[in-house]
Task: structure prediction
Amino acid sequence: MPQNSPTDIADRIRHFHALLPEGVTLLAVSKFHPLPSLQTAYSAGQRLFGESRADELTAKAAAMPPDCRWHFIGHVQTNKLRRIIAAAHVIESVDSERLLRLISAEAQRQGKVIGVFLQVHVAAEETKTGFTPGELLQCARDCHDFPGIEILGVMGMATNTDNADRIAADFAAIARTASLLRQIVPTATRISMGMSGDWPAAVAAGSTDVRIGTDIFGHRQ
Ligand SMILES: *Cc1c(COP(=O)(O)O)cnc(C)c1O
Result:
Protein backbone atom coordinates (compact mmCIF):
# COMPACT_ATOMS: atom_id res chain seq x y z
CA MET A 1 0.00 0.00 0.00
CA PRO A 2 1.79 3.17 -1.15
CA GLN A 3 2.39 5.85 1.45
CA ASN A 4 2.72 9.41 0.26
CA SER A 5 5.73 11.10 1.75
CA PRO A 6 7.39 13.60 -0.60
CA THR A 7 10.38 11.32 -1.27
CA ASP A 8 8.08 8.46 -2.15
CA ILE A 9 6.08 10.57 -4.62
CA ALA A 10 9.23 11.87 -6.30
CA ASP A 11 10.72 8.37 -6.46
CA ARG A 12 7.57 6.94 -8.00
CA ILE A 13 7.42 9.67 -10.64
CA ARG A 14 11.04 8.97 -11.62
CA HIS A 15 10.34 5.25 -11.51
CA PHE A 16 7.43 5.56 -13.95
CA HIS A 17 9.36 7.89 -16.26
CA ALA A 18 12.14 5.29 -16.41
CA LEU A 19 9.81 2.30 -16.68
CA LEU A 20 7.26 3.35 -19.28
CA PRO A 21 8.22 2.54 -22.85
CA GLU A 22 9.05 5.28 -25.34
CA GLY A 23 5.81 6.78 -26.65
CA VAL A 24 3.76 6.10 -23.52
CA THR A 25 2.82 9.28 -21.64
CA LEU A 26 2.29 9.39 -17.87
CA LEU A 27 -0.78 11.27 -16.68
CA ALA A 28 -0.35 11.80 -12.93
CA VAL A 29 -3.90 11.58 -11.59
CA SER A 30 -3.78 14.07 -8.74
CA LYS A 31 -7.51 14.30 -7.94
CA PHE A 32 -8.21 14.64 -4.20
CA HIS A 33 -4.50 15.02 -3.42
CA PRO A 34 -3.21 18.27 -1.90
CA LEU A 35 -1.15 20.82 -3.77
CA PRO A 36 2.19 19.93 -2.06
CA SER A 37 1.91 16.43 -3.54
CA LEU A 38 1.58 17.91 -7.02
CA GLN A 39 4.50 20.26 -6.36
CA THR A 40 6.64 17.29 -5.37
CA ALA A 41 5.68 15.49 -8.58
CA TYR A 42 6.50 18.63 -10.54
CA SER A 43 9.93 18.88 -8.95
CA ALA A 44 10.57 15.27 -10.04
CA GLY A 45 9.83 16.28 -13.64
CA GLN A 46 6.09 15.62 -13.99
CA ARG A 47 4.17 18.19 -16.04
CA LEU A 48 0.97 16.38 -16.97
CA PHE A 49 -1.78 16.09 -14.36
CA GLY A 50 -5.29 14.62 -14.34
CA GLU A 51 -8.21 16.02 -12.35
CA SER A 52 -11.84 14.99 -12.15
CA ARG A 53 -13.60 17.99 -10.62
CA ALA A 54 -13.92 21.46 -12.11
CA ASP A 55 -13.28 23.35 -8.85
CA GLU A 56 -10.19 21.37 -7.97
CA LEU A 57 -8.84 21.64 -11.50
CA THR A 58 -9.30 25.40 -11.52
CA ALA A 59 -7.61 25.92 -8.15
CA LYS A 60 -4.66 23.63 -8.87
CA ALA A 61 -4.06 24.93 -12.39
CA ALA A 62 -3.93 28.48 -10.99
CA ALA A 63 -1.49 27.48 -8.24
CA MET A 64 0.90 25.27 -10.23
CA PRO A 65 3.58 26.54 -12.65
CA PRO A 66 2.28 27.55 -16.08
CA ASP A 67 4.11 24.80 -17.97
CA CYS A 68 1.85 22.15 -16.45
CA ARG A 69 -0.75 20.56 -18.69
CA TRP A 70 -4.12 19.45 -17.39
CA HIS A 71 -6.37 16.62 -18.48
CA PHE A 72 -9.94 16.51 -17.22
CA ILE A 73 -10.91 12.86 -16.64
CA GLY A 74 -14.14 13.10 -14.63
CA HIS A 75 -17.81 13.39 -15.42
CA VAL A 76 -18.40 16.73 -17.14
CA GLN A 77 -21.23 18.75 -15.61
CA THR A 78 -22.26 21.07 -18.40
CA ASN A 79 -22.76 24.00 -16.01
CA LYS A 80 -19.03 23.69 -15.15
CA LEU A 81 -17.85 23.38 -18.75
CA ARG A 82 -16.76 27.00 -19.05
CA ARG A 83 -14.36 26.62 -16.12
CA ILE A 84 -13.10 23.23 -17.26
CA ILE A 85 -12.26 24.59 -20.71
CA ALA A 86 -10.61 27.67 -19.22
CA ALA A 87 -8.16 25.47 -17.27
CA ALA A 88 -7.81 22.16 -19.14
CA HIS A 89 -5.86 21.35 -22.28
CA VAL A 90 -7.59 18.02 -22.84
CA ILE A 91 -10.93 16.50 -21.82
CA GLU A 92 -10.65 12.70 -21.76
CA SER A 93 -14.18 11.86 -20.62
CA VAL A 94 -16.27 12.82 -23.66
CA ASP A 95 -19.17 10.38 -23.74
CA SER A 96 -21.87 12.02 -25.87
CA GLU A 97 -22.25 13.94 -29.09
CA ARG A 98 -24.19 16.58 -27.19
CA LEU A 99 -21.21 17.13 -24.87
CA LEU A 100 -18.82 17.33 -27.81
CA ARG A 101 -20.99 20.01 -29.42
CA LEU A 102 -21.01 22.01 -26.18
CA ILE A 103 -17.21 21.69 -25.85
CA SER A 104 -16.77 22.87 -29.43
CA ALA A 105 -19.01 25.90 -28.88
CA GLU A 106 -17.39 26.91 -25.58
CA ALA A 107 -13.83 26.38 -26.82
CA GLN A 108 -14.57 28.60 -29.79
CA ARG A 109 -16.05 31.22 -27.49
CA GLN A 110 -12.80 31.16 -25.45
CA GLY A 111 -10.64 31.15 -28.58
CA LYS A 112 -9.10 27.77 -27.68
CA VAL A 113 -8.68 24.37 -29.22
CA ILE A 114 -9.37 21.58 -26.71
CA GLY A 115 -8.01 18.09 -27.22
CA VAL A 116 -10.61 15.40 -26.60
CA PHE A 117 -10.61 11.67 -26.09
CA LEU A 118 -13.85 9.85 -26.86
CA GLN A 119 -14.61 7.53 -23.96
CA VAL A 120 -15.64 3.99 -24.83
CA HIS A 121 -17.45 1.67 -22.47
CA VAL A 122 -16.31 -1.94 -22.59
CA ALA A 123 -16.17 -2.86 -18.89
CA ALA A 124 -18.69 -5.13 -17.20
CA GLU A 125 -19.77 -2.49 -14.68
CA GLU A 126 -23.00 -0.68 -15.51
CA THR A 127 -21.77 2.44 -13.77
CA LYS A 128 -18.82 3.14 -16.07
CA THR A 129 -19.85 5.76 -18.58
CA GLY A 130 -18.94 6.03 -22.22
CA PHE A 131 -20.07 5.39 -25.78
CA THR A 132 -20.55 1.91 -27.15
CA PRO A 133 -17.91 1.33 -29.86
CA GLY A 134 -20.56 1.84 -32.56
CA GLU A 135 -21.82 5.11 -31.04
CA LEU A 136 -18.25 6.37 -30.67
CA LEU A 137 -17.49 5.81 -34.34
CA GLN A 138 -20.76 7.47 -35.38
CA CYS A 139 -19.95 10.47 -33.20
CA ALA A 140 -16.51 10.72 -34.82
CA ARG A 141 -18.08 10.66 -38.31
CA ASP A 142 -20.54 13.39 -37.33
CA CYS A 143 -18.24 15.64 -35.32
CA HIS A 144 -14.60 15.24 -36.39
CA ASP A 145 -14.45 18.58 -38.21
CA PHE A 146 -16.04 20.66 -35.45
CA PRO A 147 -14.05 23.83 -34.72
CA GLY A 148 -12.48 24.27 -31.28
CA ILE A 149 -11.82 20.57 -30.76
CA GLU A 150 -9.16 18.10 -31.82
CA ILE A 151 -10.05 14.43 -31.43
CA LEU A 152 -6.90 12.79 -30.04
CA GLY A 153 -8.07 9.21 -29.59
CA VAL A 154 -10.03 6.85 -27.35
CA MET A 155 -10.13 6.64 -23.56
CA GLY A 156 -11.38 3.58 -21.73
CA MET A 157 -11.29 1.50 -18.57
CA ALA A 158 -11.10 -2.22 -18.09
CA THR A 159 -13.45 -4.09 -15.79
CA ASN A 160 -12.42 -3.82 -12.15
CA THR A 161 -11.52 -7.48 -11.63
CA ASP A 162 -8.61 -9.80 -10.82
CA ASN A 163 -9.39 -11.81 -13.94
CA ALA A 164 -6.40 -11.11 -16.21
CA ASP A 165 -8.16 -12.55 -19.26
CA ARG A 166 -11.11 -10.20 -18.86
CA ILE A 167 -8.78 -7.21 -18.41
CA ALA A 168 -6.79 -8.16 -21.50
CA ALA A 169 -10.01 -8.60 -23.50
CA ASP A 170 -11.27 -5.18 -22.40
CA PHE A 171 -8.02 -3.45 -23.38
CA ALA A 172 -8.05 -5.27 -26.72
CA ALA A 173 -11.60 -4.02 -27.32
CA ILE A 174 -10.59 -0.44 -26.50
CA ALA A 175 -7.56 -0.70 -28.83
CA ARG A 176 -9.77 -2.14 -31.59
CA THR A 177 -12.15 0.80 -31.25
CA ALA A 178 -9.17 3.15 -31.43
CA SER A 179 -7.96 1.57 -34.65
CA LEU A 180 -11.43 1.95 -36.20
CA LEU A 181 -11.48 5.58 -35.06
CA ARG A 182 -8.17 6.14 -36.87
CA GLN A 183 -9.84 5.11 -40.14
CA ILE A 184 -12.23 8.06 -39.66
CA VAL A 185 -9.81 10.54 -38.01
CA PRO A 186 -6.25 9.58 -39.03
CA THR A 187 -4.68 12.00 -36.54
CA ALA A 188 -6.54 10.41 -33.57
CA THR A 189 -3.67 8.08 -32.72
CA ARG A 190 -3.79 8.02 -28.94
CA ILE A 191 -5.20 5.37 -26.61
CA SER A 192 -5.69 6.40 -22.98
CA MET A 193 -6.00 3.22 -20.94
CA GLY A 194 -4.37 1.72 -17.86
CA MET A 195 -4.59 2.78 -14.22
CA SER A 196 -2.71 1.83 -11.06
CA GLY A 197 -3.90 -1.76 -10.91
CA ASP A 198 -3.77 -2.67 -14.56
CA TRP A 199 -1.41 -0.39 -16.50
CA PRO A 200 1.12 -3.09 -17.58
CA ALA A 201 -1.66 -4.98 -19.40
CA ALA A 202 -2.82 -1.72 -20.98
CA VAL A 203 0.68 -0.90 -22.24
CA ALA A 204 0.98 -4.43 -23.63
CA ALA A 205 -2.28 -3.84 -25.53
CA GLY A 206 -1.07 -0.56 -27.07
CA SER A 207 -1.84 2.20 -24.56
CA THR A 208 -0.16 5.53 -25.34
CA ASP A 209 -1.44 7.33 -22.22
CA VAL A 210 -1.59 5.72 -18.78
CA ARG A 211 -3.55 7.45 -15.99
CA ILE A 212 -1.90 6.68 -12.65
CA GLY A 213 -3.14 8.04 -9.32
CA THR A 214 -2.75 5.70 -6.36
CA ASP A 215 0.58 4.18 -7.44
CA ILE A 216 2.10 7.68 -7.44
CA PHE A 217 0.32 9.65 -4.72
CA GLY A 218 -0.96 6.94 -2.39
CA HIS A 219 -4.58 6.47 -1.42
CA ARG A 220 -6.98 9.34 -1.87
CA GLN A 221 -8.57 10.91 1.22
C1 LIG B 1 -9.15 8.16 -10.62
C2 LIG B 1 -8.96 7.77 -12.03
C3 LIG B 1 -7.76 7.17 -12.46
C4 LIG B 1 -6.61 6.81 -11.53
O1 LIG B 1 -6.94 5.71 -10.75
P1 LIG B 1 -5.84 5.00 -9.82
O2 LIG B 1 -6.42 3.65 -9.60
O3 LIG B 1 -5.76 5.80 -8.56
O4 LIG B 1 -4.55 4.96 -10.56
C5 LIG B 1 -7.64 6.88 -13.81
N1 LIG B 1 -8.62 7.17 -14.69
C6 LIG B 1 -9.78 7.75 -14.31
C7 LIG B 1 -10.82 8.04 -15.33
C8 LIG B 1 -9.98 8.05 -12.97
O5 LIG B 1 -11.15 8.62 -12.61
About this structure: The chain has nine helices and eight strands. Residues 29, 31, 52, 73, 195-196, 211-215 surround pyridoxal-5'-phosphate (CB under 6 Å).
